[in-house]
Amino acid sequence: MDHSLATKTALLQRPGWTATLVSRLLGEPDRRKKVFGYTTPLALYSIARIEQAEAGAEFAQAQAGVAKRKEAAAKAVETKIAKLMVAIEAMPISVERLSLDRVKKQAIDSYNMRNRGESFASKDDDPAFLDRITVNFIRHELTQYDSALWAIVGKTGISRAVAEIRRRVYSAIAQAYPYLKAECERQIAARQ
Fold first, then answer.
1. 3-state DSSP call for residue 5?
2. DSSP per residue, 23-70
3. CA 172/CA 153 separation, integer angstroms
4. Contacts (Cβ under 8 Å, ≥6 apart) of 41
5. Predicted model pTM
6. Which of 1-5, 29-33, 40-44 has the lowest mean pLDDT?
7. Residue 13 above 90 pLDDT?
8. How far apart, in whole angstroms, are the C-alpha atoms of residue 14 and residue 19?
9. Strand 31-33 relative to strand 42-46: parallel, antiparallel, unpaired?
10. Given this model, what pLDDT does residue 120 score?
């Protein structure tokens, strides 16, 4: 291929170019080339004409407009994230309190029902394992954790929001079940 020409694809990879700018500043291509297997010929633009357009005032104005739009979009994203984080901070987090024996038994039963024979938990298992499945059970069954996550699906800033919801839920579990505080802290650290 002639190195004094660039395809429209190559042109769009240059900084600052958009399809709209190509049409507005360059108009029709300098040459079209048929390519076997394609119905639409390649649009080829002169590198000299591209560089001339890039040096022009209209290209500089377009870049300033793009920069303003990017800045406005970034501010809008920051505002959406800030509003979401305020809503999460205001979100009530409650933990249903059961006796430790009862909650552990329910956690074991839930674990066994979910795993259906693949692995089996019992009250005689490793205490760290039992603490882990108990915290998981409390998080999913005795708090609004899952509904809080569903409430933020599709929102801007979801990764920060999920992390904050988790932190708040684990903190509430640790307050309701002080015996499980270390496991809550371990799970928070593992997810960061």
1. strand
2. IIII-S-SEEE--TT-SSPEEEEEHHHHHHHHHSHHHHHHHHHHHHHH
3. 22
4. 32, 33, 34, 35
5. 0.65
6. 1-5
7. yes
8. 12
9. antiparallel
10. 87
Strands 42-46 and 5-7: antiparallel
88: tokens are: 């999460």
Residue 1: the pLDDT is: 53
Q: Would you say residue 2 has pLDDT above 70?
A: no
Contact between residue 75 and residue 101 where contact means Cβ atoms under 8 Å apart = no
Q: Give the pLDDT confidence of 103-153 residue by residue, as tens digits.
A: 999 999 999 998 886 788 899 999 999 999 999 999 999 999 999 999 899
Tell me if 179 sits within 8 A of 100, measured CB to CB: yes
| Closest alpha carbon to 131 in 144, 143, 121, 141 | 121
Gap between the Cα atoms of 25 and 43, Å rounded: 15
Burial of 65 (0-12, 13-18, 19+ CB in 10 A): exposed
**178: DSSP letter:** G
Q: Cα–Cα distance between 63 and 66 in angstroms, integer?
A: 5
